[in-house]
Specification:
Blueprint lengths: L14 E6 L7 H15 L3 E6 L14 H21 L3 E6 L3 H16 L3 E6 L4 H5 L3 H13 L2 E4 L2 H7 L8 E3 L15 H7 L1 E5 L8 H12 L6 E5 L7 H12 L5 E5 L3 H10 L2 E4 L10 H8 L4 E4 L4 H4 L7 E3 L4 H13 L1 H18 L2 H15 L1
Parallel strand pairs: 1-2, 1-3, 3-4, 4-5, 5-6, 7-8, 7-10, 8-9, 10-11, 11-12
Helix pairs in contact: 1-15, 2-3, 3-5, 8-13, 11-14, 13-14
Length: 379
């Protein structure tokens, strides 16, 4: 059931220990940690966070640093202290599939089990079967980690299927991501948004996220739509990256119509989303799950055109006003964007479907109710 109006019977309140990381860095998992804390607290739960803050920037995630190793004892001491002082009934752990981080998660699970705390493992990516296939040690650790959990929460069906070799189906639950607020534009703005012919890219500027394909797409479409404009928003991943991109755009002759903005705050991103005609998501990242920026686009009634990488096709489809093509098929991506920019009826229908999909599956109310049901299941 996905209706935000459904009731949660006999809601149980609990002291909850949450082991994850708040921003920075800003990525899906850290932002959803903040969202989850808010959702649990709004339901009346007493939440205590042990911040697993080993990475300060996005490009440090998954990499080994001596500084991280030095921070491990302090983190585990904070964990034990938190359990002893807070006395939680449930621990909620964002379980990760990167080898080094997964080993830290296993230390967390071992400590928490000593205190007989109920455990919920929360997954934001697949790849655990791949992790288990590395060697016999990781295979046994992955099996042990999921056996230690009272409930495993994933974002999608395929993510659940990835861990089925290690967990019983009746100990899994799917809870989709959410974005906290919908800022849908007024219906009167629809025609101006369509006529604006503005396309937008929002993601960290990592090659697999497809910012190069966005630039190529913009160059090609500019030949057909003289009024086309675009913005590229995202944190750089190396020094002088923004300057290099701006120089490339200037050399191509599009510096007046395509803006390379770099990192922007949520308010600025929301403003650009509310003004745009199409959100372009050309990511080829194999482990794409449910990027929060796509939820923001849906919340702003913004049609999405992108590659069907990872689990994107489980999140959005034509039923949500979106258009997906095979990863790397830039020609078909261009055709889908062109089709929306060329036809007001098609664009309007896609825009309306986007907001309907958001309200049905990705609102904060739906997310909060689903998590309350999960807590009820383990308490």
């Amino acid at each position: 059931m996905h209706s935000a109006t459904r009731k949660v019977n006999s809601s149980k309140l609990a002291k909850i220990l949450l082991v994850s990381q708040l921003p920075p860095p800003f990525n899906g998992s850290t932002i959803m940690t903040r969202t989850l804390v808010s959702a649990l607290q709004s339901s009346g739960h007493d939440v205590f966070l042990v911040n697993k803050s080993f990475s300060r920037q996005s490009d440090e995630i998954g990499k080994a640093y001596f500084r991280k190793l030095l921070g491990l004892p302090a983190f585990l001491i904070r964990l034990i202290f938190g359990i002893c002082t807070h006395r939680p009934k449930v621990m909620l752990l964002f379980l990760t599939n990167r080898p080094q981080s997964f080993l830290v998660d296993c230390c967390v699970l071992a400590i928490v089990r000593i205190f007989r705390v109920r455990i919920i493992c929360y997954l934001h990516t697949n790849g655990f079967s791949e992790l288990a296939a590395r060697n016999v040690i990781f295979r046994e650790l992955v099996k042990w980690a999921f056996k230690s959990s009272n409930l495993t929460v994933t974002l999608s069906k395929s993510m659940t299927e990835d861990v089925m070799p290690f967990v019983q189906v009746d100990r899994t639950r799917i809870i989709r991501n959410c974005t906290v607020e919908s800022q849908s534009p007024e219906p009167a703005d629809a025609l101006s948004r369509f006529n604006h012919k503005k396309i937008i890219f929002v993601s960290n500027l990592i090659p697999s996220k497809g910012y190069v394909d966005f630039l190529r797409l913009f160059y090609a479409l500019s030949d057909e739509f003289k009024e086309l404009s675009g913005v590229l928003i995202g944190s750089p991943t190396y020094r002088d990256q923004l300057e290099h991109l701006r120089s490339e755009v200037h050399s191509a002759g599009f510096s007046s119509t395509l803006k390379i903005l770099g990192y922007q705050d949520h308010e600025t991103i929301s403003k650009h989303l509310s003004e745009s005609s199409v959100f372009v998501f050309p990511s080829q990242y194999a482990f794409e799950a449910q990027p929060l920026v796509l939820l923001e686009a849906l919340a702003h009634s913004l049609p999405i055109v992108g590659y069907s990488s990872g689990q994107i096709s489980e999140m959005i489809s034509r039923e949500s006003g979106s258009r997906l093509v095979a990863p790397g098929d830039l020609e078909q991506l261009q055709l889908e964007v062109k089709a929306l920019l060329s036809n007001l009826d098609s664009w309007t229908s896609a825009s309306e479907l986007a907001l309907i999909a958001f309200n049905k599956d990705f609102s904060a109310d739906v997310y909060r109710i689903n998590w309350q049901e999960a807590i009820n299941e383990v308490v």
